[in-house]
Every structure is written in C-alpha cells, then in structure tokens.
Queue: 4 jobs
Job 1
Amino acid sequence: MRRSDPFHDPRAVTADARLEAMLRYAIAIGAVLVLLLPAARGSHVALGWLPLWLLLMPMTAWWALHRFALPAWAPVRRVATARPRPRTVVQARRRQRPARPLALPRAA
C-alpha cells in the first residue's frame, strides 16, 4: 500500500457522522426486515426486488459516503503496460472461394 493511495488510506475518508449513523440504521432495519419477514425477500410490482431497496441500496450509499474505499486486504492492481504479446498460434486465413462456373446459356 502506498501512502498516496486514497482508496486504501482510512485517514483520507471523512464522512458526516449523522449521515453515516442514519445509513447504518437503515441497513440494520433492512437486514432485520429481510431476515424476519418473508414478504421482504420477495418482489413488489412497483418497487421491484425488495432486498435491493432494503439492503443493497443503503449499503451502496454507505460505501459511496466513504468514497468507494476498498478494504485494506484488497490488493492494489497495477495497470499493465500496452506491450503486445507475441503470437504463439498462427492466425486462421480465409479460404479462397472456388472460381465461379461459367453461366450456361438460357433457352428463351
């Protein structure tokens, strides 16, 4: 981990404490509803899949509040250089089409 990497540095993330508390509360309530109420695991005509709105959307908002910070155990991937790989297999070639047969004269 480099010091200048904002995705892994926990000190680089400052979030509003009230908003974070509200999102944690919404996630906790959504988790209780999904676990205890079978109807909360289903789908609604107007809303769609309910666990999405009860759990995943609040969790995504909480993650966005922390500027999409990655966990410390996630490795930092380096961008690969744009160096072409040497070909190991010969690329397939198009088959040559056979010559067209001569058109036969048509009888009127």
Job 2
Amino acid sequence: MGLPARKIAAEPFPESAAKAELQAWYAAFAADMALITDAPPAADTSVLSLAPLISSQHALECVMRVEKLVGYKIPHSVVKRGGYATCDELVTHLLSRMKAYHEKL
C-alpha cells in the first residue's frame, strides 16, 4: 500500500483579471441597453422595476468570458437564479462562486 497521490498545486484563480473581464462585459451591456431602452421608470410601481437589471441568461455570458480566461468549463450553477440587481452584486457573487469552484479542482 502506498501513500496517497500528491495533489498538484494549481495556479491561483485569476481574480483581478476575471473581475476586469466581468466589468468590461457590464460596460458593453450597459451601453447596449442604453441604446434600446428608454429612461428607467420614475416610480417603483412599474412592472419593469420587478425585473432584475442583469438576467441569469446574461450572467452566463460573463461565465463564458471567464471560461476563456481560465481555460476550463465552469458549471452554470455558479449563476444565481433570477439574475442580479447591480453590477457589483454580479461581480461579487460570480467571483466568489467561480473562485470556490476553482479551488475544488
């Protein structure tokens, strides 16, 4: 019986590069949204105020951009169901989940 195989140390998760990638995606997303939408509703009584700013489908685009950066597939389960209300919420949540997944590898 031998010793257990030594785990090869992986490179650390590129958190700053991933954060920059997510913020660049959001900047392009916000610019596109400004072209196709009117001014946001003045009151919170609008149906549009119930929808998240960034849908979970859009958040998957962010995950795919980070996949190119890290070189492996990231499960879609890192994305929060229902979407994100702000860019900061998206970045904070996705980075923590993707970093935790990277550390499990």
Job 3
Amino acid sequence: MPDDDYDLPKLLADITAPWRQQAACRGKPTWWWYPTRDEHATAAIAICRTCPVRSDCLTAGLDEAHGHWGGESERGRRRIRQIRSIRAQRAARGLT
C-alpha cells in the first residue's frame, strides 16, 4: 500500500519532465544512482559530470531522501539545502 505522504502528481510530473529526455543517464541501470555506499556510485557520478541537464536533475532531486541526483549524494544535497536555508534566513534579516 502506498505511503500516505506520497505525492503522486509530483511523482508523475517528475517522471515525465522534459529534461529527462536529454539526461545522460537515460537507459542506464537505475540502481547505479542508488548505491549502498557513496563510493559505489563512481560510474553514476562520472555520467552526471557530463550530463547537459545536471542542474535540472539536481533541482528535481534536492528534496529526495535517497540516491544521487545531479551528481550529488544524499549528504551533498543535504548540505546544499542547509546552505540555501542559511542564505534565505540571512536575506530575510537583511544580511548578505
């Protein structure tokens, strides 16, 4: 049974996003981007580095809990979210 927090419209929009047609990972094994350890993602990260839609992928995956998106691991995306949050808080207080 699906999780109640699952956002099906968002999932469908993500799956059919036009940028995915240009993704360098298209046709590659999905599990490459969901390794059990970060060091096992070497092939996936190498593909991401050459991808023309890397920034679109990263944007789509920033809130994803698992896998590599836009060449970033879960830890890397968490760091990006934290930096963005700090910058937004500083901007809200008029600090730069």
Job 4
Amino acid sequence: MTFTYLNGLGRESLHQIIHSRVATNWLLPDLLCPLVYDIFFDMKAPGAKVDFYKIGDGFEPEWPEERYAGDLCIDGVFIVNYFGHEWPHKDYPGVTYVHDAVWSRRSPVGLSHPGVWFNSFRKLLPVPEGSLVVSTMPLVESTRRFNAHLLVIALANDWHREWQSRRENWAALAAAFDPIPMMGPEYPKFFAMAIDGRDEVIAKLKKDHDVSLPRPWRDVHRMGNPLYDRLMCVPVDSQFMPDGPRRIIDLLAKEMGK
C-alpha cells in the first residue's frame, strides 16, 4: 500500500516526512543544499544521531559498510537524485529510505522497501510551487496543500516542447564539456559540471558578458566535499537560452580557457 500527498513546496514535503518520524538516526549525503541540512538538524528528534556518507565526483554515493551503519543504529537513509540521476542504494536491513527526487516527474510505481519519495514541480514546470509525496507509510498532514489549478494551467501549455528544447540544449553542452555524470537526464533543468576556478569563471561571465549563473551551494556547514568548490550549474531552459546554446557554449569555452 502507498500513501500519496500533494504539498506546496519540496521543503514542506521534507518537513512533513521528518515530522512524521519515519526514522530517528539518519545517514545523509555529504553534498547537500544548506536548506535541506538545516531542516534535518532543526527537526530531528532530541538525541537522534546524524552521520554522512560521501558523494564522489560523479555524484555517485560511496556507501559505508553495513557494520558501520549498524554500529550507529541508522534507521533512515536520505538519498538525493542529483539533477535527475538515480544511483543504486545499499540495502541496509531495517532502514527507511527517503528519496529526494525533486528533479523527477515520475513517481515510483511501487517502492520495494520501506520508504518515501518526493519531488518538486517548480523544478520541472512553469509553476511556483507543488510537490508530490509517495510513501509506504502514512504521514502527518502538511500545513499547506498544493493549488492544483496551477498545474492545470501549466499542463495546458505546450510544455513538452520546452522539455525537448532543454534536452537538446543539455546534449549540446555535454558535447562541448564534461558533464557530471556522463549521461543525460530525462527532464534536465541544469547542465552540471565540475571545474577548477569556478567562482572566477562565474564572476567573469557576469562582469564581462552580463550572464548570470545560479549561485552554487556553499559549504556553510563545513561538510568538506570538494564539489562545493567546483560544481557549476548552467540553466538549459529556453528562457536562459532563447537563441539556443551556441552563445553560452562559446562564452564558457572562452572563460574556461578551452
């Protein structure tokens, strides 16, 4: 049996999941949006443990041995499908898995293990809010529900054309640079790559060419993952590239010295 919920935002879905106490002692990735980190640490049960597993340069998880997780009494694992890419997870016994799939449009047909899956509509559609939650267990109700009228308006437009444009832009960037990872997501919003001197490249794009890239996650909690200093995300939507990807590719190549 699965339980389905529609909430206002992805962060509200995460609040709902943690408040439902689906797990107590958590294993989190060491590459996280600071907001997600803060939600976990603000809402975890008193005395609960939180530890971290490493995320490699290709966004692949490096899972601790079962004995390590057992010694920590881990009963919850948080998995991030970075930029729409899914990785196999390690099956720890007696553990609930929470899948942060904010970049995914498709909910799971069936969760094969105790767990919760949630996404974010605004990562995929031209709507300001919306998050779907699918769970193998009942959750407490969220404080703010999603306005379904927004989704009806978005789907009434030819959004499939925008998805196709994003995939084509992503593929053009992938042909020119090294993406992370080396595969194309089904519904891309960003082209992600790791480069040295990222902050300098972003600053020069803004100063010399008036091109503003999104501000990357900052390692404000001193997690230590080197991707915090190297990850650069280039939007692939038609609003950022109204005339296609050629100009952005040329500017990136120039400022990266390629």
